[in-house]
Amino acid sequence: MDILFVSAEVTPFSKTGGLADVAGSLPAALSSQVASIRVITPLYGQIDQKQHSINSTGISGSVSLGSETLAYTVHKSVATKGQAETWFIGNERFFKRDGIYTLPNGAGFADNNQRFFFFQLVIIDLLDKQLLTPDILHCNDHHSGLLPGLVKGSARSIKTIFTIHNFLYHGHFSPDEAELLPPVLQNMLTLTQWENYSALLEGIDGADLVNTVSPGYARELINGSGIDEHSHQHLRMAEPKFHGIVNGIDTDYWNPERDSYTPFHYTALDLTGKRLNKRELLRQTGLDDDLETPLMGSISRLVENKGFPLIIKLLDDLVALGLKFIFLGSGDPQIAQQLREAGKRHPGRIAFDESYNEAVAHLIESGADMFLMPSRFEPCGLNQLYSLRYGTIPIVHLTGGLGDTVVDWSSEQGTGFLFEPYTVKALLRAVKRALTVYQAKSQWSELMRRAMAQDFSWDRSARQYIELYKKMKEMPQ
Ligand code: ADP
Fold it and tell me: What is the pTM of this model?
């Protein structure tokens, strides 16, 4: 099998969220089990080509977007143990700028639809010219949602799989923008109830197989919870080809025994290093240096659906219970403002780092006692998986991938604390349960060790993807 994995962001080159982590590590995990796997992504201006040894392939060409002809170049980095070979599409106008999707103030680029139309048309051009010859095109999220239709429209024998990492982002585009696309694709598009088009729904309709990043989220999508009727119709139609596979994590990069970002290392058998990292984290963030008080971490895009409305309502009460907090994240200015104000009300107890910082993220995972992730919905979630691996006990809402990966303390196999329904009261109860166990030191240590023993490496999930690929290959043309 020859696979082409399409993603708008890929760790370590470009990242805004979990999609990048998956695109960075799943293809590498698959590489030993398929004949060939390549990743393809835009060459954003912020990518340091020297640092990542990205070189020109000498391939260039042009594609038509409406009446314009736009040139592209192709660059690549070679495969390494932890990274599949990656191809980068270069274009000055669309990609050579700071930011992946947004301006520094968080506003989306006005031409995002054209940028990703272009990206997908270049991929089709490379397929046409047989510079890439995959059997399977693995598309991810709305940025590559038009590819299944484009492939079908050209009667190629390539099979397509479309993975939904987050159903919230549709990549809507207007009928005027649709006119920029090849006529064969325009004829296949379905108008939404808002009289526009959804690249996400096009991907779901057009692909031979569809999957999302956990069985729990797959069930929620098919049941239509919180989803508008029009989108739900598309999901229901896709049900026979719909699957759920939990994401794995890069267990070398997220490894408390060897983490290059953290000053101290530890294992489930010797947790001394975790306590020393906690001291370092408290020092760096200016929090009170008392090591006994439980420290709760949060690493997240600041968006409503990550549960910030609940957190913000509860913060004063939680501090009163004796907890300290470190929040790392950027995004919604209003949420940031509320976290800043909470920090001012509780100096030494609440720290807020409004940045995107890989090193701080690793230090939080290794130094905090608990990890707060009360997402309203969560397709898979990665931070709860990193947290388990670092013995940082997750407190999560029972939804999507969180429910598939964290087992509540009340069970013998418990690894964290789950709450339901999505209310302030239920979250408060979960935190109080966690605090009770935290006070009983031996129970807490046992819980940490159980959490750290969980295996979320890519092996199991990669095997499930291989099964899907095989199934696709056997499908009639
Ligand atoms: P989502 O993809 O919805 O943002 P996930 O939990 O699946 O949520 O993945 C988020 C990824 O982004 C994780 O790897 C997390 O560590 C990282 N991340 C989010 N915000 C930050 C930040 N401010 N600094 C560093 N890493 C972050």
Answer: 0.93
